[in-house]
Amino acid sequence: LNHHLSGLFGVSSLAWTGHLVHVAIPASRGEYVRWNNFLGVFPHPQGLGPLFSGQWNLYAQNPDSGSHLFGTSQGAGTAILTLLGGFHPQTQSLWLTDIAHHHLAIAFIFLVAGHMYRTNFGIGHSIKDLLEAHIPPGGRLGRGHKGLYDTINNSIHFQLGLALASLGVITSLVAQHMYSLPAYAFIAQDFTTQAALYTHHQYIAGFIMTGAFAHGAIFFIRDYNPEQNEDNVLARMLDHKEAIISHLSWASLFLGFHTLGLYVHNDVMLAFGTPEKQILIEPIFAQWIQSAHGKTSYGFDVLLSSTNGPAFNAGRSIWLPGWLNAINENSNSLFLTIGPGDFLVHHAIALGLHTTTLILVKGALDARGSKLMPDKKDFGYSFPCDGPGRGGTCDISAWDAFYLAVFWMLNTIGWVTFYWHWKHITLWQGNVSQFNESSTYLMGWLRDYLWLNSSQLINGYNPFGMNSLSVWAWMFLFGHLVWATGFMFLISWRGYWQELIETLAWAHERTPLANLIRWRDKPVALSIVQARLVGLAHFSVGYIFTYAAFLIASTSGKFG
User: Rounded to an integer, what distance in angstroms lies between the CA atom of residue 159 and that of residue 166?
Assistant: First the structure.
């Protein structure tokens, strides 16, 4: 742990700060540092003087001006570590000097944190002692975290589950922050790159997070020891699994009925020609939070959006002078203006997240056994229907829960990426009212997002020839083909394929040429578990190919 905290995070952050200060910031000011001159170029005119004399504020003085031309000395300053906030007016990305300051602070925190835990020399805290000291007051969680240290240490699946869960969340946060706080110069002006990076990271996050639950379930089947974990937090979670699963169930049902109900009501109102009868709910709490951070367009007089409040006035003179300008500009994606369409789609995404979680949590908590099949753990992670005499035991292995959850995960990522892409292309085109008006009913999504933005793909080839988008048009068709092939495995089940194979074997034996090829054992169709895996792979890959082609063609077709 010390090695990871200090060695990996701490040292790498410090090294990145070094690169930014010594190479990137000078380059942004027109001074190129190479192997032949790096010893003679000072990143700051005063060198290390301010560091040793304690006058660190000198490193923040004289930042680049608003008229700075990136890559040249025109309008450039000399500061190397700043806290300006907001974006560079020309590159539309974060100030490099802010980024350097941030990484220096992160490096400091991690280098200190890396000295906290016990090493081979017996210095520092023991993780085991820290963990077992955490016993909730009043005995509400039994023996607390006792036994957990050895359980985690002795299970590679538990460790992998924790690592995947962390990495999955981080990957999703990367998707969010790469566009809202762009760190790379000029990336904010390359719309296709932004759309592709956001979608890519959200898909990766989805797969990694579902993988975390899969390995959690394998841990419960193969590595969990009830005696070692008696009455600790892990055991109590298993004891309360009915409460956990039923709570997730009612939350999913509530979200599903209400969200779909609102969308369908609005669809019917549009169909009957009375759009004014739609139920449109303003996300006032989210708007209040945005206002508290300084967004003035909603008219809330609160915190940073209140010009005579102490927070606003202190902020003006002490910190982040560029923040308030950036948050109220519509040219960036910092805090997008939100309305009823956003309110609805956020609840649709919440439905997807809660249902995916419900299926995965149920799969993991029921992996050891249930009232229907108490000895489930003896059958392993994946097993098909459990034979005659135990009816109704199909689809209850932990693998089946993972398999079903991946469809819900892909569904959810679809809603997330559709929302992000549609909102942004209308923003980039200066046509955000299209999103605001059409996103409150399902037909609007189908017609004004999917259908209207497919025209580029449809015209990749047409009677008059082809264009640079033709490869994406091919990929769009190919993706649909792969995706649809998945259903062949997912819907036509094992008996159908077995009978078909027996018919083919009969034909094989009666055909002179085919009869030259023989087989030792009787040909058998894919098992249910195998067919589901093949079907899931086709569905996922085809889905991603199809949306990738749509996303790239519709974005680059508009913005180049």
Answer: 11
Task: Give the Cα separation of 331 and 35 in Å (integer).
Answer: 38
3-state secondary structure of 162: helix
Q: Where are the extended beta strands (E) located within 340-391?
A: none
pLDDT in tens, 341-355: 999 999 999 999 999
Residue whose token pair is 């809202």 = 180
Alpha carbon distances (Å) from 91 to 51, 87, 164? 30, 8, 34
Any idea which residue has 């040909």 for tokens?
Answer: 523
Dihedral of alpha carbons 444, 449, 452, 455, sign: negative
Of 29, 38, 43, nearest in space to 73 by CA: 29
Cα separation values, 499 from 23, 490, 495, Å: 68, 17, 6
The packing angle between helices 191-218 and 156-180, to 10°, is: 160
The closest of 96, 83, 65, 85 to 327, measured between CA atoms, is 85
Per-residue confidence (pLDDT) for residue 510, from 0 to 100? 87
Distance of CA 257 to the CA centre of its chain: 25
Alpha-carbon separation of residue 317 from 67, 98, 197 (angstroms): 21, 17, 36
**Model-level pTM?**
0.93
Question: Do the Cβ atoms of 182 and 99 come closer than 8 Å?
Answer: no
Q: How far is CA 45 from CA 33, 37, 330, in A?
A: 15, 16, 37
- Cβ contacts of residue 354 below 8 Å, gap of 6+? 248, 251, 252, 255
Rounded Cα–Cα distance for residues 424 and 440 (Å): 16
Task: Report pLDDT digits (tens) over 235-289.
Answer: 999 999 999 999 999 999 999 999 999 999 999 999 999 999 999 999 999 999 9
Structure-block tokens of residue 89:
């007016």
How many CA within 13 A on the CB side of residue 216?
A: 23
| Residue 129 buriedness (CB in 10 A; 0-12 / 13-18 / 19+) | exposed
What interhelical angle do 191-218 and 398-428 show, nearest 10? 160
3-state secondary structure 35-75: CCCCCCCCCCCCCCHHHHHCCHHHHHCCCCCCCCCCCCCCC
Residue 559 near residue 428, CB atoms below 8 Å? yes
Structural element, H or E, at residue 514: none
- Are residues 535 and 468 in contact, defined by beta-carbon separation less than 8 angstroms? no
The answer to whether 448 and 438 are in contact (CB under 8 A) is: yes
Contact (Cβ atoms closer than 8 angstroms) between residue 429 and residue 405? no
Distances from the Cα of 477 to the Cαs of 451, 471, 482, 542, 543, in angstroms? Answer: 15, 10, 9, 10, 11
> Is the pLDDT at 531 greater than 70, yes or no?
yes
Spell out the SS3 assignment of 238-305: HHCHHHHHHHHHHHHHHHHHHHHHHHHHHHHHHHCCCHHHCCCCCCHHHHHHHHHCCCCCCCCCCHHH
Cβ contacts of 459 within 8 Å, gap of 6 or more = 467, 469, 473
The pair of structure tokens assigned to 257 is 């009925």
Residue 388, pLDDT score: 60
